[in-house]
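Can you please make up a whole protein chain along with its backbone structure tokens because I've never seen that pairing?
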Amino acid sequence: MDVHKASNILISVIGKGRLKKDQTVGYEQTEYVFNPDKEKNNRYTASKTAFFGIALYEYLTNVECIQIDKFIIIGTDKSAWSELYQILPHYIQNSEDIAEMCLKVYEEEKKGISEQTLSEWESTLKKYVPSLKFYKIEPVELGKGIDILLEELEKDVDNNVIFDMTHAFRNIPIVFSYGIMLLKYLRKINKIRIFYGAHEMREYFSGLVDGQSPVIEISFIDKLVKMIEAMATFENSGYFVPILSQLGFGNREKTYFKLEMNRQPRREIEEMIKGLEDKLNTAEHVYEREIVEIMYEEFSEMNRQEKLFQRMYKRSQFFYERKQYLKALILLYEAIIVLCADVYNKNNMNYEGREKARKILKEIECKNVYFYPENNKLIKDPDEVEIIKELEYVRNAAVHGSSSIGNQNYLEDIESFKVLFNSALNVFEKMLQRRNQIKKG
């Protein structure tokens, strides 16, 4: 298989089947109509079948011209496995060998088909449709379906997954929907398509006759999966590019990179705020509107933080709340240094200016507090000095992987670290208030 080509995996759950009313051999069949919401000449009516998976296979291969690399069929011991003869070319279906084997399967599946018979039936059909693969499971084996997909979806190969949920027990589509979100982290899944032969929805489509069922492609699930992943990524890391893409804002990677590098992309942020305001008025669904509101508040908060030390401080809180302690630690310590540079009119955007501010903080402010605290601009209490020193020690030790000069317990005990970090947040708030008073004065 070409490693650069996506593998198309069709997964179908085969049900028990309704016996024919005239009591002849076989099951009640349906004509499945694809694209039922379009004009009649744009619809596609598949061959009659008792198993929607066959109709879907026909549509995908004949109409969309998709090469199905694997057609995985999952069922129980009493599923209508015998109906799979319909996947064969018509000139083969009525051959003596096929008819004999099909009847054996039909009779056996009523009571529960054996592994041996099902394996023989699979081998027979695979001669004509090599992509077929059968799996027999119990309805209560909720994790088995996900195990099957992990087995069949190759690692390091891009996969397009097509799922037929028509004949499944009701729990199976639910488990699949959650399972596919997990699989996307274990396998490369480009796209998810879900189809449903919706016999009970005939009344919602015009032009269908008795014996026909509309086919619905539920593309909304793929959209939801992507939205869930994007929101989880943002909530856990602050990386907003995927969720903005899902909201229709294109690729905002450059804006995110500038923020991560402590640049000031104010124009881009203001553009985002305007775009989100417009989106609030045009969002079709409540869930979209709430997500937009979250992002609108995020960018509005960024826009309110005019100074670099303000942005660093807010980001340190953001990462601390998400348990990304190293990032939070570094940002908070640097926010204190940049705040000092701002108060003492040092250039906080270059190394030299920050080093001067760091020296002022340590050699003037921290020392003066014991003798002339009234002369200090930022630090007024010895306890504040001790907290800043501990924060610096822990920051250096964490960054370099070494032992801290101060209390080693901060690096080993999370509760001790939290006490220090929150104390440092309070010190920063006090320093910020003093800075603001100086600017007003």
About this structure: Strands lie at 7-13, 31-34, 44-45, 70-75, 132-136, 159-164, 189-197, 212-217. The chain has 17 helices and eight strands. The mean pLDDT is 88.
